[in-house]
Amino acid sequence: MRRVEQLAMLHRYVETVLPDAEPDEERFRSLARQLKDIELTRRNATESVALAQRLGLPFGDEQDWEIHIAIPLRGTEGHPLVAKNVVRLQIRPNPDWQWELSVCASPNAESSRKAKQRPTGTISVSQFSGAEIFMPF
């Protein structure tokens, strides 16, 4: 396991038990702050955070957020966030899981791609080449 993954797991554990730490456990609280700073640095160095900042979105440095984009395919009925024939993109500031792209081009088929590490910026969607994207605006 890589060091950053170990630190991320340790940070999640420490954040969970931190409320139960006694007030006099200053050394533990100091180490917890150091872990938090490491995780915030990782998080704020992601492409997701850079995109949110470039778009001027009002997210705080420590705020947990997700962006959901749903594009209905031609002939889709209903709202895009709950429809079956859509392309969905989720973006989040998690350095270990920054984005997820999913396509559901028929009621019985769905496929998705996820970035658990730093994404390369490209994704192959050749299996969806028959789908037409319809933007109703």
Describe the overall structure.
The chain is an alpha+beta fold and 137 residues long. 31% of the residues lie in helices and 20% in strands. The chain has helices at residues 3-17, 26-44, 47-54; strands spanning 67-72, 86-91, 99-106, 109-115. The chain has a four-stranded antiparallel sheet, with no helix packed on it. A hairpin with a 2-residue loop joins strand 3 (99-106) and strand 4. Helix 1 (3-17) crosses helix 2. The longest helix has 19 residues, at 26-44. The radius of gyration is 19 Å and the shape is elongated. Mean pLDDT is 78; it is low at 118-137.
Secondary-structure map with pairings?
Elements: H1 3-17, H2 26-44, H3 47-54, E1 67-72, E2 86-91, E3 99-106, E4 109-115
Antiparallel strand pairs: 1-2, 2-3, 3-4
Helix pairs in contact: 1-2
Brief summary:
This protein is an alpha+beta fold and 137 residues long. The chain has helices spanning 3-17, 26-44, 47-54, and strands at 67-72, 86-91, 99-106, 109-115. The chain contains three helices and four strands, in the order H-H-H-E-E-E-E.
Report the biggest beta sheet as strand number plus sense, adding barrel if it closes. Answer: 4 strands, antiparallel
Number of helices: 3
* Head-to-tail CA distance between termini: 47 Å
| Radius of gyration from CA coordinates | 19 Å
- Global structural class: alpha+beta
**Care to count the β-strands?**
4
Indicate the low-confidence ranges by residue numbers: 118-137
Sheet with the most strands: spatial strand order: 1-2-3-4
- The portion of residues forming beta strands comes to 15-25%
